[in-house]
Design a protein that fits this description.
It contains four helices and seven strands, in the order βααβββαβαββ. It is an alpha+beta fold. It has a single domain, classed as 3-Layer(aba) Sandwich (Aminopeptidase), CATH 3.40.630.30. Bound molecules: coenzyme A.
Length: 151
């Protein structure tokens, strides 16, 4: 498995993975716009086939933010999510940030467990965060300056 930069040729496949992973979709145009904006955008590829992606950026001056991460249903629990998040965190760690934040749907305990393996902690719950009324669990990872966190 390799982790590489997203390119426009991956758009359709990333959209497919997003669709099978979330009730609510950013939509293909939003992916294109995020890419054009220059956010961090990586894909995991296995035998030439894209099986997952992660999108991240810097929110405010000192906070990293994981916008979205998903792995194809048929390739979960094989370490792809870990490879993607390790790479995203190590890139963000180079940027002198204090914290990495993300939001998880409160009805997604599997993802909360996944983030906990990286030592992300629960910060708070934001009610009605998603369109369908579900709340978001906000999680954070404190970064030590100049040090790349290990799992
Ligand atoms: C969350 C997600 C990205 C994890 O990707 P993955 O490739 O399956 O994750 P990994 O194989 O690297 O998992 C690493 C560890 O995280 C934990 N973990 C991952 N998925 C889990 C789940 N559903 N339930 C409990 N623990 C889980 C386990 O400890 C796992 O190690 P193990 O398989 O040895 O037990 C994937 O499940 C996914 O795409 N889910 C749908 C989209 C989503 O929820 N994204 C996050 C939204 S904020």
């Amino acid at each position: 498995m390799i982790i590489r930069k997203f390119g426009p040729q991956d758009l359709k496949r990333v959209f497919e993975i997003e669709n099978m992973s979330f009730d609510q979709s950013y939509g293909i145009n939003m992916f294109k716009q995020l890419y054009d904006m220059g956010v961090g955008f990586l894909v995991a590829e296995k035998d030439g086939y894209v099986i997952g992606y992660v999108i991240f950026w810097i929110k405010y001056e000192n906070q990293g933010h994981i916008i979205s991460i998903a792995v194809d249903k048929n390739y979960r629990r094989l370490g792809a999510g870990t490879h993607l998040l390790v790479k995203a965190i190590s890139i963000l760690s180079l940027l002198d940030l204090d914290t990495i934040y993300l939001e998880v749907n409160e009805n997604n305990p599997g993802a909360v467990e996944f983030y906990k393996t990286f030592n992300f902690k629960v910060d708070r719950v934001v009610p009605n965060y998603y369109e369908n009324g579900a709340g978001a669990i906000v999680m954070y990872l404190k970064l030590e300056h100049g040090k790349i966190p290990t799992k």
